[in-house]
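Input/output pair, single chain:
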Amino acid sequence: MKKLQAFILALGVSATAMANVSGSVDPDRASVTVRKVDNTKVQLIYSMNPVAPVTVKIYDANKFLVQKDKIVADKPFAKAYDFVNLVPGKYAVEILENNQVIDQYMLDMGTPVSKPIAFSMVEKVENNKFKLLYNGLSAVNLEILVFENDKLIHEEHVSDVNGFQKLYKMEGVSPRAKLEFFVKTDEGFTQLLAAK
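Output:
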């Protein structure tokens, strides 16, 4: 079982794309998102401050528990899961906080992901300044999340753009920290960019 869990769990945060997802259990907790990265990877983004440890349970189509993950955090976080060594198929992801189910998702880990045509990149300009660029074919609503060591430190929403460029001065961020920009649109484009 430990080998199976090791294959499923991929530490870190990776680029994400639209998932085949069923609705939330509680619409007020809409800041919990599970997105499909590619045919074998998904990412959990928890954009709230957890009040208790968060438990993630992943079940296969036969309702067999294939992964259970307890996350202790006091700030928003993101975590990636890899299904590469499991059979393609449908999986249920259940997110619990304080032993209460706050969200459930159904993922089809066998269906190819169609990605919108768009481009984004982040470039380190100097010590704590980073330039973010996004270009797409059509006007979209853009959401930008910035993570320092997997903790959410900045969130921004930009409406109706097909091109966006901004210089971010990240004060109070350690030069040794892992800094990542997560860009997503309402059309389904998602990309996680590591700031180097």
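The longest strand covers residues 129-148. Confidence is low (pLDDT under 50) at residues 1-29.
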